[in-house]
Amino acid sequence: MRSDMTIHPPALGRYYEDFVPGDVYQHPLGRTISEADCTWFTLLTCNTNQNHFNAHLARQNPVSGGRILVNSGFTIALILGLSVIDMSQNAVANLGMDEVRLTHPVYVGDTLYAESLCTGTRPSGSRPGYGIVSMTTRGLNQDGEDVLSWRRSVLLPGRDSGAEQGYFPQAKSGPLA
Questions:
Q1: For residue 55, what are the β-bridge partners?
Q2: How far apart are the first and last CA of the chain?
């Protein structure tokens, strides 16, 4: 093993003190929705609205423009997931989601992106070493149309709390050489 080698422990996400109200996070991943995504999610959640999986019926829907509409539950889950890497990777709890707005239809084949604005931070009154981060998140499609938005708050550990750290196992065979 080199004497000048640095071991970088696994780290992903931010801690409470990393957030500054007014900062915007353009989340790095986009995701194209396939027909299989839409169909599986709809069937797994027992949603029987055929506009999500029956192309023949969807052609008659005046809102869908004749295309299969993506299940709004999937759209919400996807935008939430896209935001996790920046906003709640280290969260220990979601505290609330308010003012969910579905503002533009999402179709099979659309690619969605997410961005979040940190709207506030405050230390937790009940959990020392933790803080509450509030945000507004919105989803955009490939054309820049807002497809949904919400306000959300999460409970995040502070860096000194030790939470979400030190979980990587020590190799019994010793360090990589």
A1: none
A2: 5
Q: Look up residue 2 and give its DSSP letter.
A: -
Helix, strand, coil % over all residues of the chain, rounded to 5 = 20, 30, 45
Does the predicted model carry a pTM greater than 0.85?
A: yes
Q: How many angstroms separate the CA atoms of 18 and 12, rounded? A: 12
Write down the domain spans for the chain: 16-161
Domain 16-161 in CATH: superfamily?
Answer: Hotdog Thioesterase (3.10.129.10)
Output the tens digit of pLDDT for each of the chain's 177 residues.
556 766 666 667 888 998 999 999 999 999 999 999 999 999 999 998 989 988 898 899 888 888 999 999 999 999 999 999 999 999 999 999 999 999 999 999 999 999 999 999 999 999 999 999 999 999 999 999 999 999 999 999 998 887 777 778 888 998 787
Report CA torsion sign: 114, 115, 119, 120.
positive
The one-letter code for the residue type at 30 is: G
The DSSP output letter for 171 is: P
